[in-house]
Amino acid sequence: MLITNAFSINMLSCDSEIRFSRITKSCAAELLHLENWESCVGHADTARVFSDVLGVDIPANRATVSFDGSQKMIVGQYKGPRLEEGATKLPEGATIEWWLVQDAVPLALKKEIEERDYQEGVYWEFDPRQ
């Protein structure tokens, strides 16, 4: 599992159907306690604020994220004024929306469908005219 402060289509490494589910702060913190995870929060101030809000140490890590559908991602979407340098607390009036991002179709099911389609001679191609 990854925790990030943003999601971009540039993160996709393959065709995907992605599900975005809004989750509570408590749910985000619980997932971080239950699962192995890596921080991909690229800004130190944002990481410190996330740590304070969730009660979990979130290190800053400017990593390049590649989402291939096999993992889950918690995205903390900060909304508010620009964080002051050295911030450790959520500024007044600011919020963080927490999202769980995951592939809408599990990888094992995708492989099963692809194998069946291959055996049946069905090939999927994107046609921009449709």
The low-confidence runs, each spanning 5 or more residues with pLDDT under 50, are 126-130
N- and C-termini, Cα separation: 36 Å
Query: What is the C-alpha radius of gyration, as a whole number of Å?
Result: 18 Å
* CATH homologous superfamily label: Uncharacterised protein PF08960, DUF1874
Class, according to the CATH hierarchy? Alpha Beta
Q: What is the count of distinct domains?
A: 1
Mean pLDDT over the full residue set: 85
Largest sheet: 5 strands, mixed
Order of helices and strands: EEHEHEEH
CATH topology group: Rossmann fold
Helix/strand/pairing category: alpha/beta
Task: Write a brief caption for the model.
The protein is 26% helix and 21% strand.
Structure description:
The protein is 26% helix and 21% strand. With 130 residues, it is α/β, with parallel strands linked by helices. It has one domain: Uncharacterised protein PF08960, DUF1874 (Rossmann fold, 3-Layer(aba) Sandwich), CATH 3.40.50. The protein is elongated. Mean pLDDT is 85; it is low at 126-130.
